[in-house]
């Protein structure tokens, strides 16, 4: 093991650089990165190029896509511009997804690290709590939380985080259990490093690769979650989002397919690109697994 | 084995106790007067109603006494009263749990059977077309919002190929038909929702069983089976699959909670008269006793599913039998 | 005609380093009832020879590029998959190196033996089970009735190898291939397994192809021996003759590795390692590790030639300067 690490330092390439080199060669992952970049740029700056109020009734209802040049994706049941809705809805969708993933990771990594590092009764207690949270159907629990504490972008992100951390906690715990037995952790302890330092400065950086992959995939799950809640009408009522567009137009799907199809495609492409990136990172961090 | 089962069931009951306590805490932690929360904001509850709620839930007593009263009620099967439907929550859920179980179990079986079949086919040629298809399909299946898949299927089957019903669970016109006609009718209605729900997990099982099969197919005992002169089909489906099924079972158990979450959305899309639809309706009406009841029963389904998974795991893997 | 004849067998594998030749013109023959030991270090091609004979080379990446494997005159390299399946387990059976992992963990051992019987004989399930129990008894497993209902993880390594042997001989094969059957076992158990193999061979009349890296096993078991190096047979003959009068420096090296009192108890080994197959040059593959190698050895591959009563592939032995 230590021989291998010496080899790495000889080649003078950090694991991160090596992973990036692997990632660059992974075509699906690059496609994912490209799609995600386009989506992020459009949601950030799209409204500058294509201004339009997503709530404003601008045309006749159910104008099909491609007929009127001003409304390339058509209009919805009220006659609102679908392109404007998608551009305006992207920001909140992505923001909630990212925030929820961050909350998930913070809760999951903290609890998982404590359980894995200290073991014993701490581990036992935290794992029982984790199992308890895994018993609650996540979406239903999130729905309850959002309704009880009234929907806003923050409550939604927090609710998604509160229901999705158990998997991250399990992963972190497993990594900590594995890494805390390695020589360099013993060495750090031997020179008198405190528990906190060992956990966050020694073990966590070495557990980073699987956690980064997990964080990426968590963003995708969180976006799907947000979409599901907004679809059910539990999103922030004052903010446009892709899920809300689908939910609002649901009653009229047999009259007009486009008001639900395009926002759905937007969700799909976002999550798809994120998971391509996640898979690419996974392959980049575990080159050995690629041959499977 | 029976010792293991007893301990597993006791632990499951502990988890359910946790769910009850959580329900209790959630109502108290929510902003506002718990009595108003319980009555539901849509109800426009009168002061008399609120007073009777305070009486029933002991809301004027200390918190621990309130918890005791609440626990006692749940143990007696009393999950409270829905002020919107004006009937006991337990009864409401009893009417709705059957369709949900039917939908979830059909979707679970469909996704496992089809997913494993695809995965096994893909594993036969790791670099082949089927393998590539399974990988792409799994990534797509993972990224599609389940409610959107449902809507797309409704559009497709309602207008383009009207061969499946896209709404509800039974046709009204068959209400007086013989039982087997009604059953066939339910099965017919079940196809689209079950398939919609299955599709995400199907893709994941396909990817998982492909990986699991590839690992198992490299084992020494597979070579032994071939050395005996077993046919390739026997090697794949008897010798390899029995071993490859173990990680699939684990994931199937863990996915059950997510499957119920998915069922909630699918029931809403297809107007399937189950618990998910009930949860959706009661959340829109702020009917908390019903929502909490649904959360309780949905969690109970996950607990039962987990116990069944553990049992089947021990049946499938002789190395675990005899351990407690 | 011998029972099993391998003639000029060439097997190649496509790898990251291009196509490599794992077996380069291997010829072996096995007479009914005899034991032929194929000896060499890991990577010399002895296991590939065994797997080719069973038709168990994964293809791709493997390919039989030439030669023939004849069992009682029938060329197995040209046989159909169905014919190979019918033959595997029935006419040629194999015992593997790792008894711990070679049995399927989810089936009882009785079931696994009975399955082999049912695959090749038309008997009832009950009869197959009774035969399996009788076989377990025959290979020296106590209370075979109960053990047949055990799963592999409930048995010790030696017991599992006995189960493997019972499974292999269940259809009375003409050829029994034993691939390092004792490597994974304790030394005391090794001797028991060799005794059992000898007995079984005697009772069932099977010819045994013993794959091993251990010259000690050769002297205990084999009638004849073939020493392999880098995909070629480099010395072959009667076991006693080769052991006592080996002509090839590599064989001598292997013999010197047998731990014995004469050597003062110190374990010896041949310096260097088997060269990777994709780096084989034009000369003798052993030249790099050979103390006696001359220029000739590095430029031309020696063929098998009669020398001192048996065959050896060494320029020095053939020309008498060694």
UniProtKB/TrEMBL annotation, chain A:
Membrane topology: Multi-pass membrane protein
Keyword annotations: Cell membrane, Membrane, Peptide transport, Protein transport, Transmembrane, Transmembrane helix, Transport
A Pfam family assignment: BPD_transp_1
Subcellular location field: Cell membrane
Transmembrane segments: 27-50, 94-118, 139-163, 211-235, 256-278
CDD domains linked: TM_PBP2
Broad class of the protein's primary localization: membrane
Domain ABC transmembrane type-1: start-end pairs: 90-278
Transmembrane listed as a keyword: yes
InterPro entries with a match to the protein in the record: BP-dependent_transpt_permease (IPR050366), MetI-like (IPR000515), MetI-like_sf (IPR035906), OppC_N (IPR025966)
Family as reported in the entry's similarity comment: Belongs to the binding-protein-dependent transport system permease family.
Alphabetized PANTHER family for the sequence: D,D-DIPEPTIDE TRANSPORT SYSTEM PERMEASE PROTEIN DDPC-RELATED (PTHR43386:SF1), OLIGOPEPTIDE TRANSPORT SYSTEM PERMEASE PROTEIN APPC (PTHR43386)
Descriptive protein name: ABC transporter permease
UniProt organism field: Thalassococcus lentus
TrEMBL record, chain B:
CDD domains noted in UniProt: TM_PBP2
Listed transmembrane segments: 9-27, 101-121, 133-166, 186-203, 246-270, 290-313
UniProt keyword annotations, A-Z: Cell membrane, Membrane, Transmembrane, Transmembrane helix, Transport
Keyword Protease included in the entry's annotation: no
Cellular localisation: Cell membrane
PROSITE patterns in UniProt: ABC_TM1 (PS50928)
Domain ABC transmembrane type-1: start-end pairs: 97-313
Name of the protein described by the UniProt record: ABC transporter permease
Organism: Thalassococcus lentus
């Amino acid at each position: 093991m230590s021989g291998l690490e010496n080899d790495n330092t000889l080649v003078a390439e950090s694991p991160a650089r090596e992973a990036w080199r692997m990632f660059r060669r992974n075509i699906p992952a690059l496609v994912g990165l490209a799609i995600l970049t386009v989506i992020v740029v459009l949601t950030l700056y799209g409204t500058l190029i294509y201004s339009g109020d997503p709530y404003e009734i601008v045309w006749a209802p159910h104008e099909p896509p491609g007929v009127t040049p001003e409304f390339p994706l058509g209009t919805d049941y009220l006659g609102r511009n679908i392109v404007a809705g998608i551009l305006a809805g992207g920001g909140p969708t992505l923001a909630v997804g990212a925030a929820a993933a961050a909350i998930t990771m913070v809760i999951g990594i903290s609890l998982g690290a404590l359980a894995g590092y200290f073991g014993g009764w701490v581990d036992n207690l935290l794992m029982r709590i984790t199992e308890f949270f895994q018993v609650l159907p996540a979406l239903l629990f999130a729905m309850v939380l959002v309704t009880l504490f009234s929907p806003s972008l923050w409550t939604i992100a927090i609710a998604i985080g509160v229901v999705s951390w158990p998997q991250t906690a399990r992963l972190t715990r497993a990594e900590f259990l594995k890494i805390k037995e390695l020589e360099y952790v013993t060495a750090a302890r031997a020179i008198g490093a405190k528990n906190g330092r060992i956990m966050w400065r020694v073990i966590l950086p070495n557990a980073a690769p699987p956690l980064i992959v997990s964080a990426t995939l968590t963003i995708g799950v969180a976006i799907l979650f947000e979409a599901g809640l907004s679809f059910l009408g539990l999103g922030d009522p004052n903010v446009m989002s892709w899920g809300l567009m689908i939910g609002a137009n649901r009653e009229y799907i047999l009259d007009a397919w486009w008001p639900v199809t395009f926002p759905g495609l937007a969700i799909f492409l976002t999550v798809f690109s994120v998971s391509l990136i996640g898979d690419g990172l996974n392959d980049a961090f575990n080159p050995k697994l690629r041959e499977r | 084995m029976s010792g293991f089962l007893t301990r597993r069931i006791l632990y499951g009951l502990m988890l359910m106790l946790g769910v009850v306590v959580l329900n209790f805490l959630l109502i108290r932690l929510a902003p506002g007067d718990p009595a108003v929360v319980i009555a539901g904001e849509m109800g426009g509850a009168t002061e008399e109603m609120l007073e009777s709620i305070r009486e029933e839930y002991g809301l004027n007593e200390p918190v621990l006494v309130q918890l005791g009263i609440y626990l006692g009620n749940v143990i007696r099967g009393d999950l409270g009263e829905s002020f919107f439907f004006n009937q006991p929550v337990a009864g409401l859920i009893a009417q709705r749990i059957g369709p949900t179980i039917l939908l979830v179990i059909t979707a679970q079986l469909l996704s496992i059977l089809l997913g494993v079949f695809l995965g096994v086919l893909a594993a036969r040629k790791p670099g082949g077309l089927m393998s590539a298809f399974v990988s792409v399909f799994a990534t797509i299946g993972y990224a599609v919002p389940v409610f959107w898949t449902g809507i797309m299927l409704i559009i497709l089957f309602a207008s383009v190929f009207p061969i499946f019903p896209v709404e509800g669970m039974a046709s009204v016109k068959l209400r007086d038909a013989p039982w087997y006609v009604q059953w066939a009718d339910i099965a017919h209605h079940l196809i689209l929702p079950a398939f919609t729900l299955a599709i995400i997990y199907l893709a994941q099982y396909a990817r998982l069983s492909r990986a699991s099969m590839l690992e198992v197919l490299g084992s020494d005992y597979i070579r032994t089976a071939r050395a005996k002169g077993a046919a390739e089909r026997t090697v794949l489906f008897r010798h390899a699959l029995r071993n490859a099924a173990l990680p699939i079972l684990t994931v199937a158990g863990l996915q059950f909670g997510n499957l119920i979450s998915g069922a909630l959305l699918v029931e809403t899309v297809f107007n399937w008269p189950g618990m998910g639809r009930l949860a959706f309706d009661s959340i829109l009406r702020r009917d908390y006793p019903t929502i909490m009841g649904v959360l309780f029963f949905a969690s109970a389904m996950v607990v039962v599913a987990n116990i069944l998974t553990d049992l089947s795991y021990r049946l499938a893997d002789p190395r675990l039998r005899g351990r407690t | 005609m011998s029972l099993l004849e391998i003639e000029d067998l060439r097997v190649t594998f496509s790898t990251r380093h291009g196509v490599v030749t794992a077996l380069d013109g291997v010829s072996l023959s096995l007479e009914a009832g005899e034991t032929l030991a194929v000896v060499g270090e890991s990577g010399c091609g002895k296991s590939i020879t065994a797997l080719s004979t069973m038709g168990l080379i994964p293809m791709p990446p493997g390919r039989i590029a030439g030669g023939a494997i004849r069992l009682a005159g029938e060329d197995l390299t040209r046989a159909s998959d169905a014919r190979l399946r019918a033959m595997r387990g029935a006419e040629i059976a194999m015992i593997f190196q790792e008894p711990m992992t070679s049995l399927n963990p989810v089936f009882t051992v009785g079931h696994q033996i009975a399955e082999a019987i049912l695959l090749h004989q038309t008997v009832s399930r009950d009869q197959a089970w009774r035969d399996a129990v009788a076989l377990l008894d025959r290979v020296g497993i106590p209370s075979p009735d109960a053990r047949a209902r055990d799963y592999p993880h409930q048995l010790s390594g030696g017991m599992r190898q006995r189960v493997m042997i019972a499974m292999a001989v269940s259809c009375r094969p003409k050829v029994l291939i034993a691939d390092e059957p004792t490597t994974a076992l304790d030394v005391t158990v090794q001797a028991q397994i060799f005794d059992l193999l000898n007995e079984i061979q005697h009772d069932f009349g099977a010819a045994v192809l013993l794959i091993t890296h251990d010259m000690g096993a050769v002297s205990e078991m084999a009638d004849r021996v073939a020493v392999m190096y880098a995909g070629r047979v480099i010395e072959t003959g009667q076991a006693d003759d080769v052991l006592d009068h080996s002509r090839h420096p590599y064989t001598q090296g292997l013999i010197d590795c047998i731990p014995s009192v004469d050597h003062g108890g110190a374990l010896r080994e041949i310096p260097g390692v088997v060269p990777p197959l994709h780096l084989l040059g034009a000369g003798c593959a052993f030249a790099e590790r050979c103390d006696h190698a001359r220029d000739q050895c590095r430029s031309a591959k020696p063929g098998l030639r009669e020398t001192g009563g048996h065959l050896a592939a060494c320029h020095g032995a053939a020309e008498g300067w060694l």
